[in-house]
Design goal:
The chain has 87 residues and is α+β, with helices and mostly antiparallel strands. Helices cover 25% and strands 24% of the residues. It has helices at 25-30, 68-83, and strands at residues 13-22, 51-57, 64-67. It has a three-stranded antiparallel β-sheet.
Length: 87
């Protein structure tokens, strides 16, 4: 018998830096434990030359990496929420 349990975690981004760094050999040399690196949101693995975004989360969760498309989407959503706060 097997019991399968799926847990969903919701993360709340606080800020986003779209052009944080460029992924390449220098990144792998500095962070050997984080290789290969993937986008936190879409799980796409980075390739050499890709722009890496950095997303800071609320509630003291570690900063997370994001691909350029996801980082721009997160940044745009944060700007929208600041401009039109929910009531």
């Amino acid at each position: 018998m097997f019991i399968e349990k799926i847990v969903t975690t919701v993360f709340e981004p606080a800020w986003c830096k779209v052009d944080f760094s460029e992924y390449g050999q220098a990144w792998r040399d500095i962070r050997p434990d984080k290789s290969p690196l993937a986008c936190f949101r879409c799980d796409r693995e980075f390739e050499d030359g890709d722009t890496v975004g950095l997303v800071g989360m609320h509630r003291k969760i570690c900063n997370q990496t994001a691909c350029r498309d996801c980082a721009e989407a997160i940044r745009d959503q944060l700007h929208y929420e600041q401009k039109y706060p929910s009531q």
